[in-house]
Amino acid sequence: MNTPTFLHDILLLFLSLSQQNQPEIITRLFTEAMNSLVPDLGFAFAKEFPDPQVFYYERVFTQHNQFGWITAGDQYQYQTEAQKTIIRNTVRMLAIILEHATQRKELQKTNRELAEALKHQETFLANMSHELRTPLAAILGNAELLRMQPQIAENPKQTRYIGTIEESGNHLLELINDILNYSKIDANQFSLHKEKIQLEPICQQSILYVKAAAEKKHINVEYRNDIPEQLIIADPLRIKQVLLNLLNNAAKFTPAGGQLGLKVSKLSSNSSIVLEVWDTGIGISPEDQKKIFHPFVQIDHRLERKFEGTGLGLAISKRLIEMHGGTLSITSEINTGSSLKFVLPI
Ligand SMILES: Nc1ncnc2c1ncn2[C@@H]1O[C@H](COP(=O)(O)OP(=O)(O)OP(=O)(O)O)[C@@H](O)[C@H]1O
Ligand SMILES: [Mg+2]
Questions:
Q1: Is residue 249 in contact with ligand 1, taking CB distance under 6 Å?
Q2: Domain boundary residue among 190, 213, 242?
Q3: Could you tell me if 185 and 200 lie in one domain?
Q4: What is the pLDDT of residues 264-314, one digit of tens each?
Q5: Most buried residue, 36, 39, 163, 199, by CB count within 10 Å?
Q6: How far is the CA of 311 from the centre of ligand 1 (A)?
Q7: Is 0.70 surpassed by the pTM of this model?
Q8: Is the CB of 314 under 6 A from ligand 1?
Q9: Which residue's CA is the closest to the ligand 1 atom numbered 1?
Q10: Pair 200, 173 in one domain
C-alpha cells in the first residue's frame, strides 16, 4: 500500500471515530495503528519528550490543558521534503481531530451539568417566587384594608406611609414577576397565548399609561398608527408588556422637556408590521448597544445611579418578540435619542 493512500484511510477512520465522540478509542487506535501497522512512518505517541529523533511534533489540547502530543520521528531517514511534508500535515490533522473529539466530550459533560444546574435553578426560582409572593400579597392586602379605615383616611401622614408600603410592595412584586418570567423564557418553559388581535387598542392603552409618567417630566408623547385596522396573530398580554417596557424606558431615559413616541406602520413588503418606540433622550453608545439585550445589564450600573430598574426589561422583550417570530433592534445616538423597533410577521 502506498503511503498517501494508507494515511488517507487512517485519517478517514479517525475522522469517523471523532465524529462519534470516541477520543479514548481514537487515542488507543492511533497509537496501535501507528506502532504496529506503520512502524515505518515512525509515528508514536511519545510520553517522553523531547525525543532526539523527533523531527516534528504537534501538541494536543483539551479545552484547558495540553493532554499529549503526536510526534513523527526521523529514525527512518525520510528521503525527500515531500515525504516529510505529508507526515507533518498528517500529524497536524490528527492532532486537530483528537483535540476536537476531546473537546466535544468535555462540552457534552458541561452541557449535562448545566442542564442539571438549570433544573435546580428553576425549582429554586419557582419556590422562591411563591415564598416571596405569599407574604407580599398579605402585606399589600393589609395595606389596602388599613387605607380603607376611616381614621386613617383622615390622617394624611398615615395615608402617605401606607402609600409607600403599597408602592414598594408593588415594585417588589413586579421584580419577582420579571425574574420568574425571564427564567421561564430562558428555560423554554414559557408559552404564548396567541389569538387574532387588533393592535390599535393595545397601543392606545400603553400610550395612555406612559403619558401619566411622561407628563410629570413635561415630556411630549406622540402616537401615530398608519394601520389601525390591521389584525395580527399574537399574544396581546405579551405585546403590551413589550410596548410598556419600551415606552417606560423612553420616558425614563429622556430628560424633562423632551419627546417620545410610538409609530406603527407596515413594511413595504406587506409581510410584517413595525412598531417603533422613539425618544429624544440620553441615547446609548454603539458599544453599549451590543449589551443592553442581555439580562441584568444597565448602562449606568453604579449603586448611586439615578434610574430605577433591574435591567430585565429589554432581555424579556427581545425574547418575547422572537417567540412571535419577530425581531427587536435598536438605533441610537448619545445625547440625541434612541429608537427601538420591533417587527412582527402578519
Ligand atoms: N430608550 C433608552 N434610552 C437610553 N438608554 C436606554 C433606553 N432603553 C434602555 N436603555 C439602557 O438599557 C438598559 C437596559 O434596559 P432594560 O429595559 O432592560 O432595563 P431597565 O429599564 O434598567 O430595568 P427594567 O426594565 O428591568 O425595569 C437600561 O438600564 C439603560 O441603560
Ligand atoms: Mg426597562
A1: yes
A2: 190
A3: no
A4: 999 988 789 999 999 999 999 999 999 999 988 888 766 556 677 788 999
A5: 199
A6: 6
A7: no
A8: yes
A9: 250
A10: no
Q: Can you tell me the distance from the alpha carbon of 48 to that of 103, in angstroms, rounded to the nearest whole number?
A: 24
Contact call for residues 34 and 44 (beta carbons, < 8 A): yes
Pairing of strands 195-198, 259-266: unpaired
Q: Which of 161, 190, 219 is the last residue of a domain?
A: 190
Closest ligand 1 atom number to CA of residue 279: 1
Number of domains in the chain: 2
pLDDT in tens, 115-154: 888 778 777 777 777 888 888 889 999 999 998 999 888 8
Q: Which ligand is nearest to the CA of 261?
A: 1
Whole-angstrom distance, CA of residue 217 vs CA of residue 307? 14
Task: Give the structural domain span for 283.
Answer: 195-345
Residue nearest to atom 20 of ligand 1 (CA): 311
Cis peptide before 50 (omega within 30 of 0): yes
Pairing between strand 231-234 and 272-279? unpaired
Cβ–ligand 1 distance for 282 under 6 Å, the answer: yes
Q: Which protein residue has the closest C-alpha to ligand 1 atom 13?
A: 298
Answer yes or no: is the C-beta of 295 below 6 A from any ligand 1 atom: no
Residues 249 and 317 in one domain: yes
Using CA atoms, how far apart are residues 71 and 89, in angstroms rounded to an integer?
12
Same domain (yes/no): 250, 173: no
